[in-house]
Amino acid sequence: MQKRLLLNSKHLSITISRLCHQLIENHLVFENTVLIGLQPKGVFLAERIKSKLEEIIKKPIQLGYLDITFYRDDFRRRDEPLTPNETKVPFIIEDKNVILIDDVLYTGRSVKSAMDAMSAFGRPAKVEFLTLIDRIHTRHLPVEANYVGKQVNTVFSQKVLVELTEQGKKEDKIWLIDKSK
């Protein structure tokens, strides 16, 4: 197995800051915009985005957590059952601008599942997607992110590993792992 570092802690901090400034350019003061992190790993990124946005605009931002377990198209195809995570959307999304946040965009299936799961909470005015790593050339569905931390050319035999301090790691590191070697 071969590992290549995509982002270290310093680069991740710069990337998150850039993503936040892009969000501010498009949503200004976040009057009608909410953030929803996809469980489990997108929540860590969503928390960081929320904190950085609040630091910059000096205003609270609404954040929810969305579990997509029962909306996945492979839910019944697995040998072991998936363990669901908490869904916590403490606000109405009806007519809001929703920014879905996940750590890695791979096949697009998680985003589709999130859209299906989100419909239980109302009909948003607009939905955008933010991802830290966009694995281009691996889509199964026509999905793309509005906000991208880093695009990476990958093949199916590779994996992106996101290690964050919130997950108990010593420091933030994002790796590209080649599973075939």
UniProtKB/TrEMBL annotation:
Swiss-Prot/TrEMBL keywords: Glycosyltransferase, Transferase
EC number: 2.4.2.9
Record-linked InterPro entries: PRTase-like, PRTase_dom, PyrR_bifunctional
SUPFAM superfamilies: PRTase-like
Chain ranges of the Phosphoribosyltransferase domain: 8-157
Domain of life per record: Bacteria
Gene3D superfamilies: 3.40.50.2020
A Pfam family per the record: Pribosyltran
Molecular-function GO terms, alphabetical: uracil phosphoribosyltransferase activity
Classification via NCBIfam families: PRK05205.1-5
The protein's name: Bifunctional pyr operon transcriptional regulator/uracil phosphoribosyltransferase PyrR
Protein encoded by which gene: pyrR
